Structure formats: C-alpha cells, structure tokens
Amino acid sequence: MKNKLFAAVLAAMLLLSACNGKSPGSVPSDPSKEVTNQVAAGLPAETGLSNRDILALAAEIEFAPENYTDILLNIPYMDDGEEYHLIDLYGTQSETSAAPTVIEVHGGGFIGGTRGNNADHSIFFAERGYKVVVPDYGKVPGDGDFKDAIQELFTVFHWVEENSDTYGFDLNNVFLSGDSAGAYYALLCCAILYSPDLQAYFDVTPPDFQFNACVTSCPRTELSSIRDGLTSGNSVSSQIAKKIGGELLMDDDLMDHMDLMRNVAPEAFTNLYMMTTPGDTDTGASVLVFDAYLTEHGVEHTTISYDGVENKLGHTFNISYAHYPESKVANQDMTDYLNAHLR
Length: 343
Fold this sequence. Notes:
Largest sheet: 8 strands, mixed
Number of strands: 8
Structural class: alpha/beta
Order of helices and strands: HHHEEEHEHHEHHEHHHHEHEHH
Radius of gyration: 19 Å
Number of helices: 15
Helix content: 40-55%
Strand order of the largest sheet: 1-2-4-3-5-6-7-8
Oligomer: single chain
C-alpha cells in the first residue's frame, strides 16, 4: 500500500515539474487554454482561473471583517474555568432562525494557536449565512494529550447539539472545518465517527447529527513526519516534535490509532475538501499522500491547489491572510463546496 502511495506522490510531483511548478489544481498562464483539472476535481468550471481571472473574481467578492459585529466571545462549553474550554460564535444573533453551521477547528501544530486566529475565516463563512462555532482546545503536552483534545472536540459537538435551539444551529446541516493541525483533528474526528472501535479507544460518544462534509485548509494528514522530527534537525516538524515529546510520539498504540490510513475504512472521509498551495512546505506533501490514498480507494473528495498571483502563498494563507485576493477566491470556493452539500 505504501509503495503505491509513494508512487502516486512521485507521479504528482513529476506533474508539478512538468507544469513548471504549477500544481494540478492551478491554471495555465494562457487563459485561452481549456482548464479541466479543477472541473475533474468536482469544482464548477468557473473556478478554473487564469491569474487575471483570480484578481477579477476577488474584486467581486465582498469581505469586510472589520465591519462585522455579530460575534459572541468566550462562551464556555465546559464549566471548569479553563480558558481553552471556550468558544466564539459568529452569525448567531442577526439570524434567529435555524441556519447551516460550521464547527471550525483552529491550527497551531498541536502545541499552540487559538480560536482567535480563525476570526477572519469564520467571518467569511458567517457573512454568507453560516453560523460558525470556533472552539479552543487543550494544547499538547501542557494541557493534556491528544486524547484529551479529541474528547474536548466531541464535547463541543454535543454542546452544539444541546444548544441548537438557543443559537439556531441547523442540525441537518452541520459542517466540520479545520486548518493545519486543526484539520488533522477534524479528519481524526471523521474517522472516529465512522468507527465504533475508535470511539471506544478515545472514549467518546458521537452526537446525533452527522457532518454533511469536512473542509480543510492545508491539512496535516499524518504524524510520522513530526515523530521523525524527534531525531532530525531544526525543521518545523522537529520543533513541534521536541515540544510534544517522545512519551506521546513514541507511543506506538496511540500513533497507530491516530493513523488516518489505518483502523478505519477510507469511506470515513467521503465529502472531504482539501485546499493547499505549492508554497506549503509544511503539510503540502502530506496532502498529496492523502489525496493519492483517497483516489486509490475511490473516495469522493476534492483537492485543489492555489498558486500565488499577487502574493507569495504559504501554509494556511487563506486563514492568516484572508484579505489576499487568492484567499478570497479560495475561501469562496470552500464556501461553494459547503453550499453544494446542503441538505
């Protein structure tokens, strides 16, 4: 299996080289050429963009986070007084009737980050009619371990369920979103929801609702590179690994149960959206691996990559620099994916 995956990744990288550094989801510089790659990935034809088109489309996308006021901050989802057991809500006041809901899991390499980092991305969804729930969770290892973080996220799921009438969460239309390490947690939650064995291992109970789809920004899809960082140089993965520590990363049973390509059927990741960029030197390669895995197993999903037009794009550019024209187009494409999966 792994040999097949690495072969698929190598083929993808060769394709990148053949396209002069363009990813399969990017667009030829000649706008007269027919673009089929993104259409094949399941996106509408108009998202096959030339550089000029990205700027033109971005100019038409309304996005004013500085003027957005429908925000409720610091709501506890666990009554223990811990700051990392709080959530922020977007779009829950101006629209009192039930509306589709996104639960957004922030990134931070498992060791850092905060829900506030995702404010602009959450506002983008909220401006388009979604109610957005952004939780914090414990960081490894200071606030607990990976199991604790997963249990906290499942507590958030149940909190959404229990407070649906108060805040107007439409439990028939709930989506999961995450970036970087937060996307890994989101993917792991999808795996757990699909597997009673993983539910028992992580000691969680699924909510009564199901996620329509999962959308991810520059997702981390494996922990092996972080684990290898325990003995490697001074890379990002190495810095994360040394802060997490070997007690967790060298726990073979834990790592086995957190492997997204083991212990769960690939169908657990049906209706998955992965966004990346060729400039992502952190998780870009792992996205290719997971895309190859899902493709090999015939799992319906979408993977799209964005090249920089006006800006140099890096890891989670659409979260950190949501005002970039490339980010506005990427976030609109992500919203369109949510819309396409409304029930």
